[in-house]
Design goal:
The chain has one domain (7-282). The longest helix has 37 residues, at 29-65. The N and C termini lie far apart (59 Å). It has helices at residues 7-20, 29-65, 72-82, 86-113, 149-159, 167-186, 202-208, 211-226, 233-247, 252-282. By secondary structure, the protein is mainly alpha-helical. The chain has 10 helices and no strands.
Length: 286
């Protein structure tokens, strides 16, 4: 693929194209930046949710088993970071929960600014969500009145943090989707970027998605999808993919659909494997 434009080259080209062409642009630079920042916030939130899990489980283990029966590692953490005080740990968990909801609220505000529908009215925030599904499968609204955003946010956080609700698998599915998306966006300015060997945690996100880099990425994407006919196959595939992730922004409902679909496929494969094994056992020997 061709070398990426520098910041100044991209700005100069944008100014020139704006003068030369009266073509209606598909997506503005401002909108593209919002999409990128939305994905960054979402990835950061997912990483933090996973990181907070050990603290939540420590409190659960202590309440269920007591200090005598928790693992040595958990006990060391409890004594080192919380002075062996249950109230200190409880306060930390409460702080974590509030932080998670605040960050989620920022994510939802970002999507609202982009007019991206998150289908929050389909979230069952009653605490009776069935079949481990965050959203109603048949698209039926779970409320006849105005959505209580706080309880909806609490429900989303619960589904992404509670072990019994397959939170770990759900987070993994979401991280894979968003990591792949952000990697593609970043490859606009660094075609050699290889995300497969990197954990896209908050530290890496802050390092590669600086304000300057986000501006540059957005400028180049704006040029490529609005003004240029892409000739190279590799470049065409990349920007076609990026445009689809701008046009159809990944939402919590999309993540849930992918998660449940993959879960069903895995269960079907396991069932088929078990049936094949059973069939092999009862098959008479020649």
């Amino acid at each position: 693929m061709k070398k990426a434009y520098t910041k100044d080259e991209a700005k100069e080209l944008i100014a020139r194209k704006a003068k030369e062409s009266d073509k209606l642009v598909k997506y503005s630079i401002v909108y593209i930046k919002r999409v990128i920042r939305y994905y960054i916030r979402l990835m950061s939130w997912l990483y933090q949710m996973g990181k907070n899990t050990s603290t939540r489980y420590l409190l659960e283990s202590l309440k269920r088993c007591g200090e005598e029966k928790i693992s040595t590692k958990q006990l060391e953490t409890y004594r080192k970071y919380y002075d062996g005080d249950l109230k200190t740990l409880e306060a930390k968990v409460q702080e974590i929960k509030e932080s998670e909801i605040r960050d989620l609220n920022d994510i939802l505000k970002c999507s609202s600014k982009m007019n991206v529908q998150q289908y929050l009215d389909l979230v069952d925030s009653s605490g009776r969500a069935g079949e481990n599904n965050l959203f109603d499968k048949k698209g039926r609204s779970k409320t006849d009145t105005k959505v209580n955003l706080y309880y909806v946010q609490k429900t989303i956080c619960t589904f992404y943090s509670k072990r019994a609700l397959s939170a770990r698998e759900r987070r993994k599915e979401a991280r894979n989707l968003i990591k792949d998306t952000l990697s593609k966006f970043y490859s606009v300015i660094d075609p050699d970027f290889d995300s497969s060997t990197k954990e896209m945690d908050t530290e890496l996100l802050n390092k590669i998605f600086t304000d300057e880099n986000v501006d540059r990425i957005a400028d180049i994407i704006f040029l490529k999808i609005n003004y240029f006919e892409l000739q190279e196959v590799e470049e065409y595939v990349l920007y076609d993919w990026i445009e689809r992730r701008i046009e159809k922004v990944i939402t919590f409902r999309f993540i849930e659909d992918v998660f449940l679909d993959n879960k069903a496929k895995m269960q079907a494969a396991q069932k088929a494997k078990m049936l094949a094994a059973q069939k092999a056992k009862i098959q008479p020997a020649c």
